[in-house]
Amino acid sequence: MQRQWPIVAAAAAILLTSSAPARPASTIDPRIAPLFAADQGEPRAALLIKDGAVVAKHYAPGYSDATRFISWSMAKTVTAMLVGELVADGKLQLDAPAPIAEWHRPGDPRANITLRHLLTMASGLEHIEVGRIIERSDTNQVLFVGGTQAMAARAIAKPVDHAPGSMFKYSSLTTIILAEIITRTLTDSADPQLRAKAYRAFAYARLWTPAGITTAFPEFDGAGTQIGGSIIHMSLDDWGRMGKLLLDGKGADGSPIIAPDWLAFMKAPSATNPEYGGQTWLNRVSHVAGAPTLFPGKGPDTLAAMDGHLGQFVMAFSGVGRDGKPHSYVLVRLGKTQDDKLAPVMAAMGNAVDALVPAR
User: Fold this and answer.
1) CA–CA separation, 73 vs 274, rounded Å?
2) What tens digit of pLDDT does each residue of 15-29 get?
């Protein structure tokens, strides 16, 4: 199953504050200029970090350093990083049954779902990300229609339609379950405000503050569960800092934040889809029907990406550049390009990456 995204727009709170006039296209750094070409839909911001230093940055008119950009499904990778913190603490286990009490009644096949299954989108749960009929997408229904007060409860209640671990099935509701697991691990409270406060404090203490991120704004449903598959807002620079975490798991000062073994898991091809790791897309050929999500054959196959609806990308990669020297990069592209118009965007991103670290 090819990755798909919700096609109903949320009324997300996005700050739009910029009085600076747009620079002429000719003044955009040539390494990111193709990301603002006429065939790119509505690009809003791009950033290139080389060996830890910002070397190219550009905003479309109306956007600036003050803008918080919505993640859409890039939030999934953030959720996986937070799960990894609890695994490092010994509070969760990757291959143990997922700690969802509702699944552990006698005879319930969902008791066989592990944390690994959820992280690699192989839970077997009967989730429908999006289909030809919007109303039949439980992702759209839960996120935008009748499930907003208790998203995790709706996601958890679904039965299995495949054996856990047997099939890749992309699902935003699966990541909401992961966010609920984080919350239940942090607090026993049923109070939505206390649950949200505990999650936000944990995310800042263990991930965002150590990485130098100050603008992260996670959203929560009515039960206080973070909408971990879809909605976190951050500035362009802070999405670049998230890319640094995806690159090497370290802060700007080199201090470790994400355990190396957890980062390696997130970026390792999963058993049911080699272009997907732990809530992270990989630049590899898929064994699942449909076109590849990224651009295998361009750039390094070790590239890992946070990938969101409407063309949100944070890509982390390293390798020998065209100058014959090793380099590391983070490339961020944020915007609003309809999913059926993303092919030119992916081509431009692939070309940009390959110009920096060619495929070998």
Assistant:
1) 19
2) 333 333 444 555 899
